[in-house]
Predict the structure.
Amino acid sequence: MSNQEEDATDLNFPKEFENAETLLISEVHKLLLHRKTTNESAEEEQELNERFTKTLNYCQRFSKFKNRSTIKAIREMLALKKLHKFELAALANLCPETPEEAKALIPSLEGRFEDEELRLFLEDMATQRSLQS
């Protein structure tokens, strides 16, 4: 077992996260909306707590992708890029505009990807975002 210190900049995460999957804010938004809709259509509607409502509002505000097909396309496109699952989620959630911004926000990208390669990822994501219906 390693005694390395946990550090997301080096992609060193606690053991508990080894098998955990990351979700995009857009995916969490879809899940929470489904839960809210299911609750509203139930015979005995339960009041959603404040934390649920705040989380839903946060996800609605910061969700970058509006429909399932776009979310799926982004996830599939980024999955082909040999990104760590943390990097994939961070790129999709933050949608940086330049390689410099991406590396500043996600330091683990530094040295692993050339600027031109990152630029292509980011342009592909921007195109997907602009084509959403």
Notes: DSSP finds six helices and no strands in the chain. Residues 25-41 form the longest helix (17 residues).
